[in-house]
Structure formats: C-alpha cells, structure tokens
Design goal:
The protein is mainly alpha-helical. It has a single domain, classed as 434 Repressor (Amino-terminal Domain) (Orthogonal Bundle), CATH 1.10.260.40. It is extended.
Length: about 110
C-alpha cells in the first residue's frame, strides 16, 4: 500500500492553527456548549470539530471559521460592521492592483 505524503506546514502556521483550535475549545467550554451541540449547529461531524480544536491543518477553512463564529472567537474583527469595512477596504485595494502578476522578461538588459 502506498503511503500518502503529508503537506509540510511552517511552524508559524502550525502555531496559529493550534491557537485557533485552543481558542475555539476554550470559548465552547466557557459558553457551556457540548461538542455535539456546536457540531450540529455548524453542520459538521463531532470528529471534525475535534480536529479543528486540535489545530489539524487538513480541516476545511470554512468549517473552522464557522465554528469560530458560533462559539464567539473573533477572527479579523469582533464587530460584523468592522469586518464589512475591512472587506470593502481590501476590495478597493485589489481594484487598484494589476489583474495578474507576470514573471519579468529575462531578455531585458538594464545594465547601463
């Protein structure tokens, strides 16, 4: 049987996922919600919730963000209005940027 290679993640990513998982678990417990209740509300399995709480990088980002929202862990802004403002500002910034990134031409001689 062939072994499936696992994707390497940076230490920063692993630590951030661990922090998100711990924050979700802490808020769930502080809110007196069982894993079953949160999983049901999020429309996911209890085992997926456990993986999210452990910081498993293989979990769908949408599921992790939904669970965070349900238990009250702010991701980018605590207030939904602030999140809308941040999204709008990001969209405006992207509008001003080029539509694609291209590799620089290698045949350009710019040594004067």
């Amino acid at each position: 049987m062939a072994k499936i290679a696992t994707r390497p993640y940076s230490r920063y990513t692993q630590t951030a996922l661990e922090l998100l998982g711990q924050s979700i678990r802490a808020e769930r417990i502080a809110g007196r919600m069982t894993a079953e209740q949160v999983a049901l509300r999020a429309g996911i399995s209890r085992s997926l919730l456990q993986r999210i709480e452990k910081g498993d990088p293989g979990c769908a980002i949408g599921a992790a963000f939904e669970v965070a929202a349900i238990v009250g862990v702010p991701l980018f802004a605590a207030d939904p209005q602030d999140l809308s403002s941040l999204t709008r500002a990001s969209s405006e910034k992207l509008t001003l940027m080029p539509k694609a990134v291209r590799q620089p031409r290698k045949d350009v001689k710019d040594d004067f």
